[in-house]
Every structure is written in structure tokens, then in C-alpha cells.
């Protein structure tokens, strides 16, 4: 096909942005095929902005209209797997928004169904995978430039959200509506990047606060210890109540260190000899020099790389890559099947806090679903909002 006709399900902030990109011709090999939303106000908005584009208030009707070749799911998280499956059933390519779902059991169903349709393109909107900065970090790690990873630390607290943000809709920041808080709404990209770049941990132990600084049922403060199973450890911290915010990602290897500041600057320090070798062979006189801050240039090199990010550019890049896979067979940067990894890690963080103990990955999916269902039922009986 010359152009992929994309159907947008959900004309909210994200869906509206995608519609704008397509209408402005910013996405190669892709056009706006149709829009779907069950809000009458969105129908009026679509008629005003995109009068030539078919509009549907039921996504199944859109899927069966013959007007779309692919869809993107800009809807609440619980619906992503269901809509992805329904699209693929009808031989329509599926691009699901992050997260792929709320719990791994439902995401696994999506992945397993997608595997029965290998001729179709199944992607996920992990736009940060197209970010040249994180591609560079992954390249450095994969090339072994800082050696074996010993420790990861990511503090990402640039998600400040006031109470009014949570109060703007009844489903937001609820177990029944969103399936969680900062882990499923704001931080899925970082959770995906962490495992994409550094690998999945084997165990997780977390301290999670629910409604800590906001009047909500779900998490707004997370501190997690990661155990990679080979001696390497990690810490992941995120929250939505730090108005000043910090974004700092450190990866320590036995041959160097990577520090990412504000998702804009990478500092790479490469040791000329591995730390183990220096520990075993360095004279005490040379060690004393290091303690005094001397001769550091003799033991490592330092490279600083800065990046600029254009708003929307990374989303467009995912859409273009998705379209290129359909049209030309270009490999996907973010295969839909990868979405389960970030969901699994978020589920493990939740489950550890609910059980008050360390949990192993892969987690017990049935146990997680049972515990989540309890949260949903408790919320129905005693709603906070």
C-alpha cells in the first residue's frame, strides 16, 4: 500500500496530537483514516477540525468500516489489549499506547494472539526508544564499553501533578480506571528503557506509598531495589509530588560509568583498565594520588554528549517506523510484544509493596490479578474521589 490509513481510537490529548501530525502530513507513509470516540463533544471537535475524516462512536464499527488499515489505542490502559486483539482479528495492524495493559495476564493474551498473525504489524508507542540519547546509551552498553553492569540508579521525579490533575476525571488515578498511578501513567517509558538498556531484574523489593501526598487511591511515591541476579543491583525512584523534579540515570560498570542528566546530556567515563584490575595491581602511591584527586586523567577518559529533543518528534518517529514496517518491512524499533516487560516490572513493584516482601520475576500472574481485583473492589466500596 502507498499510505497506511490510521484509525485513532480516543481523541484526547494524545489522540488529538496524532491526528494533528497526520493532518499536517508529518508522518511518512501514513494518513488519517478515521477517528473514534464515544464523547459527543469529540465528535463536534472532529467535525470542525477534520470534516473529511470519517468519525465513529464505536471502535468495532470503525474496525469493520474498511476505512482503516491500522489503529492506535489512545484510551484507558485496561482497554489496550482488548482493542489490539479486536483489530488484529480483523487483519488490521495495531499500535498500542503505553502501557500495553494493566497486568501481564491480559498483555500475554494480546501477545499470544498477535503471534498467530505474524503477517500483521504489532507495535507499541515506546517513543523514547527513538530518542537518540537513549539509543546511544544502549549502544554503549551493548558494545561493552563500560563492561559488566554493577549497579543502576534512576531517579525520575519530573512528573509533578497537582490535585486538580487527578480531579479532572473520575477514572484518573483509580485502580478500576487506570490500574495504578505513577507506575502505569507517567513512568512506563523509563521502566521500559531501564529493562531495554540494562536487562530485566530477577527480583524486586519496593517501598510504595499510595495517596502519600495526593488524595488518590493509587501510588504517587515509589522506591524500588532491583536485583539482577548476578550481583548487580539497582534503585528506581519516581513520584508525582516533587515540583522541582530530578531526572538522573547512572549505570556503573566494571570498566566505566554512564550518567544521563535531564534526558539531555550523557557523560561517559571509560576506565583504561577495569576496576578489578586496578584494585589488584595499583601501587599504594598511585592510590594515594587518586585519593588526593590527582592523576584521574591517567585512569579514565571522559566524553560528554548533549542532545536536543523536539516535542512530538519521537512520537512521529515511532509512527513512521510502524508505517515503514507495514509498507517496506523495516524492522520495528518497538515491537508490541516488548510491552509485557515494562508491565511485568511495574506489576512486580506493586506486588512487592502489597505483600511486604521481595518478589521474583516472572511474578505469579494469577496472584497479581487477585490482589489487583481486591484493590478495585475496595475502591468501589470506599471511593476516595
TrEMBL record:
Domain of life: Bacteria
InterPro entries linked to this entry: Gfo/Idh/MocA-like_OxRdtase_N, Gfo/Idh/MocA_Oxidoreductase, GFO_IDH_MocA-like_dom, NAD(P)-bd_dom_sf
Limits of the GFO/IDH/MocA-like oxidoreductase domain: 134-258
UniProt GO MF annotations: nucleotide binding
Protein name in UniProt: Putative dehydrogenase
Annotated ranges, domain Gfo/Idh/MocA-like oxidoreductase N-terminal: 5-117
Organism: Neobacillus bataviensis
Amino acid at each position: 500500500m502507498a499510505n497506511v490509513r490510521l484509525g485513532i481510537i480516543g481523541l484526547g490529548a494524545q489522540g488529538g496530537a496524532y491526528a494533528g501530525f497526520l493532518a499536517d502530513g508529518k508522518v511518512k507513509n501514513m494518513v488519517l483514516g478515521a477517528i473514534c470516540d464515544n464523547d459527543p463533544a469529540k465528535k463536534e471537535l472532529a467535525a470542525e477540525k477534520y470534516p473529511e475524516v470519517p468519525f465513529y462512536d464505536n471502535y468495532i464499527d470503525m474496525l469493520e468500516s474498511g476505512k482503516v488499515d491500522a489503529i492506535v489505542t489512545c484510551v484507558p490502559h485496561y482497554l489496550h489489549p482488548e482493542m489490539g486483539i479486536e483489530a488484529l482479528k480483523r487483519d488490521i495492524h495495531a499500535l498500542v499506547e503505553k502501557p500495553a495493559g494493566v497486568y501481564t495476564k491480559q498483555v500475554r493474551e494480546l501477545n499470544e494472539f498477535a503471534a498467530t498473525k505474524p503477517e500483521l504489524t504489532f507495535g507499541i508507542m515506546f517513543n523514547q526508544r527513538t530518542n537518540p540519547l537513549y539509543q546511544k546509551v544502549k549502544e554503549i552498553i551493548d558494545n561493552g564499553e563500560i563492561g559488566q553492569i554493577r549497579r543502576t540508579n534512576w531517579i525520575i521525579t519530573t512528573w509533578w501533578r497537582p490535585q486538580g490533575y487527578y480531579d479532572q476525571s473520575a477514572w484518573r488515578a483509580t485502580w478500576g480506571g487506570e490500574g495504578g498511578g505513577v507506575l502505569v501513567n507517567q513512568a512506563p517509558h523509563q521502566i521500559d528503557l531501564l529493562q531495554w538498556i540494562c536487562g530485566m531484574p530477577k527480583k524486586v523489593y519496593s517501598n510504595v506509598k499510595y495517596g502519600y501526598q495526593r488524595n488518590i487511591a493509587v501510588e504517587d511515591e515509589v522506591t524500588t531495589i532491583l536485583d539482577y541476579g548476578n550481583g548487580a543491583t539497582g534503585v528506581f525512584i519516581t513520584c508525582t509530588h516533587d515540583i522541582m523534579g530530578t531526572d538522573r540515570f547512572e549505570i556503573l560498570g566494571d570498566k566505566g560509568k554512564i550518567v544521563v542528566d535531564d534526558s539531555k546530556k550523557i557523560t561517559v567515563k571509560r576506565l583504561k583498565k577495569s576496576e578489578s584490575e586496578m584494585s589488584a595491581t595499583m601501587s599504594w602511591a598511585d592510590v594515594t594520588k587518586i585519593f588526593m584527586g590527582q592523576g584521574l586523567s591517567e585512569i579514565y577518559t571522559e566524553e560528554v554528549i548533549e542532545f536536543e529533543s523536539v516535542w512530538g518528534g519521537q512520537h512521529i518517529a515511532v509512527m513512521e517506523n510502524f508505517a515503514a514496517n507495514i509498507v517496506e518491512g523495516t524492522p520495528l524499533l518497538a515491537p508490541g510484544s516488548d510491552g509485557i516487560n515494562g508491565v511485568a516490572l511495574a506489576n512486580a513493584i506493586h506486588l512487592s509493596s502489597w505483600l511486604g516482601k521481595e518478589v521474583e520475576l516472572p511474578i505469579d500472574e494469577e496472584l497479581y490479578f487477585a490482589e489487583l481485583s481486591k484493590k478495585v473492589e475496595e475502591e468501589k466500596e470506599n471511593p476516595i474521589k
